[in-house]
Structure prediction request, 997 residues.
Amino acid sequence: MQDTLIHKGRIAEFIHELMQDSQVIAPVSVGGQARFKPIESPEEVEWGYGNTTVSPTEFILPHSESLFQFEQRGTDFNLTYNIDNVNRTILGIRPCDVSSLRMLDEVFKGKYEDPYYLSRRNHTTLIAMMCLEPGGSCFCSSFGTGPGLDAEAGADLLLVDLGEAFYVQVFTERGQTIMERVASMGTPATSADREQVEVLAVQAASNMPRTLDLEGLPEAMGQLFESAYWDKISRKCLACGACTYLCPVCYCFDVFDTCSQAQGERVRCWDACTFKSFALLSGGHNPRPSIKESYRQKMYHKFKFAIERHGYALCVGCGRCLEACPVDMDIVQVLSGAKSQVVEVV
Amino acid sequence: MTHTATQVRGLVEVVDEHHPEAERVPVLTRARSGTSIMVDTEKTERIRERVRGLLSEGRVEYFIGYEAGSDPLHVSPSFVQQTDEVEHLVWNLMSINNLVTYLKRYRKQRMGLLVKGCDSRSVIELLKLHQVKRENVYLLGVPCTGILDPKKVAARCNPAAILAIREDHDLVFIEVGVEGRTDEPQVLEFEKHDLLFDKCRSCDYPNPLVYDELVGDPVPVRARVGGKFEDVEHLEQSSIEERLSFWQEQFNKCIRCYACKNVCPMCFCAECLWEKRDPQWVTKYPNPNDTFTFHMIRAYHMVGRCTGCMECERVCPVDIPLGTIFKKIEKDCLELFDYQPGLELDVVPPLSTFDEGDQSQEDLLR
Amino acid sequence: MLAHAIQNRGMSLFNPFIPHIATVVDIRQETGDIRTLGLRFNNRDLDFDFAPGQFVEVSLFGYGEVPIGLASSPTRRETIEISVKRMGMVTGQIHKLTIGDTIGIRGPYGNGWPVDMLRGKHVLVIGGGIGLSPLRSLIDYLLDQRDDFGTIKILYGARTPNDLVYKHLLRKWGEARDTEVFCTVDIGTPEWDGHVGVVTALFEQANITIENTVVITCGPPIMIKFVTMGLEKMGFADTDIITSMEKMMKCGIGKCGHCNIGSKYVCVDGPVFTHRELKNLPKEL
Prediction:
């Protein structure tokens, strides 16, 4: 597939074309903070964004959604539900967030396919934006989830900011279809352009401020479950949900009913394993009674259990958990510290 | 103090707040790491010495202070239990966390705690509300000349390039490295009040009001920049509809992570209504009504209790100006009851007592 | 009844979150806070096949959902039965239902008891309190195919005589061929002439043999702990001690993350585990 250059002067036109048959989600300024929102005009897009506080994956797995509505009719109940099949395009999604969706897919597929998630996923076109300058908390290169993006990651198109123009790389048929529609807006990319992209990718990767060495981590954690290390490390944790809710890979959800018995809806919404009541049984027994256990669960679920179950850690190195943490708990330090505990013992 | 020829004064006005890339300082490739933290050596040494003493004398089981954070702009709370951990403790210009919030978790233990003036007010209010026993808490007070807001610093220079931060009275000097250059780093000079947290700019109590001992001499109250209740007064002048739409817009951003509630030293209910699951009185999901109710219930519970540490506003990941709500409550409480929480131990909170001179509901509505 | 299949971009998706509507056709008050409901699906054509030890998500619309083990055996299909202890909001509402009321049922979920492994073997069933409910599904299943299994011994304990569930069945089971039932209570009453003490105290009286015997147990965590300790001491292999685990659950289909323990999701990988599997899981029971 031929890569294309779209001059920045024509990018509004490009977005306008995308808006013809899909709702375009792009980074806009909300009170000075960049957040992905549906746009009504191409001018709203804020191009100077870093990693947004809230990941655009919220458009695939929203904070809350209705599973079904119920209405009592005599002694019977009538249930109705809606599967979201709006065509959406997420424009400017960062490589780490694209990668997180591939991880979420594994969870929401399987024996019981989740129609709400999968329909939204199938109806969403991903136009990624390569990161040229990693943020201060980023460590995506540790997972291969950024700052660049390969064809397997799941984006349809990848944009690279070359200053005057966007370099557009096509990954999928869906992406190809878009590029055919906007063929008149771009010019074919040259090998010099391609080289520039590669130089930028290498540069961005070498500017990555932090790394997490996963080598031996699950094994170390295996030995460390009962360790006082988790006691110590979790003392400062406030048991809020900031890290969890901003994590693009955290997917745990709660399910509950709203409204009266006669009419209402069943809703699911994000939940956080760091909350006190996450594992609480209705009889009052809590298998994870304190912050130590809940924080440990968070770390183990992401970096040990998930590796055992899915073959990869549930982390893309976006650094949002650190950015949002009220007490500056740094997942890289916590996990590196865990590894060094085991090394010390040996 | 050495100044290089490259110092930039008044950079503040030049930088666009929405594009804080600070192009004049290219990225310096350097791992984000806590090792390069800048400390106030004198105070830090004094704190370490005293904590070592407290632990070895067995006066406290834990001491909670600050340790190096993930980058030069952050510190992190530090729990020290052994004398060999004392070396982790630091004090610097970024020591913002109100550590009093941890007291609710350690009610029965003898705790040592580092408190600034603002933090000490939370202790006073907790003592009044019988949440903490004075004899269980050993307070090491630090007279504070104001803490820098990492967001304000980051808006003016690339945090990844910071090598050192120094203060000299009303000025702050930030040394930044320049990529590919090994000569003298660039030194940026700022007016300190431009970099301070808003609460520090109008701080009335820089010296702890309750403490067992002080680290350093008391400092004078900083000359106030602007009125304390400016943002509240501005909102009060707008119509009810405007205010409602302002807050609705703000609360629509809320992701209900409860960082504001959990960081609050005065939110001490053993089981919070908002996290109670059975029965679940309120939902976890951010529907506008529940979110609005959440913030309002918290606000009303804080009347005569909130000491204005502004931790809720600081930790909000989506930048909701929660401090404005609590300043409004502080202002009302002051106007109606002439009461400011967290100042004197022997003054009873207004909602815990009744006075014949209290204004009636009708008076208030008039 | 809804058609749950959804056409979606060429994919045919089944919606696992939509419950089947069922009507309460029978209610039996077992104890002060435990009742058994007989349920019939409103869609008579629904082929609701399940294995003993599987569970369903029970919906009380307007209140929520709770996971509850099926108490009836798949060998008896006119109705399904669940036994529910009054614990929280949803179970509290279940206790207010009357005959003719409708509720929602999703499932069946989970792996269920390993019935194929039990064929030709002696089965020792040990239950505590409401934990007898998922065991009842198994016991009826075994008794309905009596020739396939060896001797069956049922050890059951409850707090007081009033807390014993399925009193009518306990008697009936004891009358079945090669089947013995032993009951105990923690605190006796003047009328109680049976055994008083914890369930492990019945081991001797029951004359338990280890050879060719598999233990199936369900009850409160503290009971499971002492039962497995006692059994291992007697010489039972940890692969022959099988238990069902209770965890906070929401979705029941391996998505919501609440029942995660180690690399397992109790709702899809369990709730039935061998004691060996449990040993390898984090100690967060």
User: Anything to note?
Assistant: The domain at 115-244 of chain C is CATH 3.40.50.80 (Rossmann fold). Chain C touches chain A through 51 residues (CB under 8 Å). Residues 1-11 of chain C have pLDDT under 50 and may be disordered. Chain C has seven helices and 17 strands.
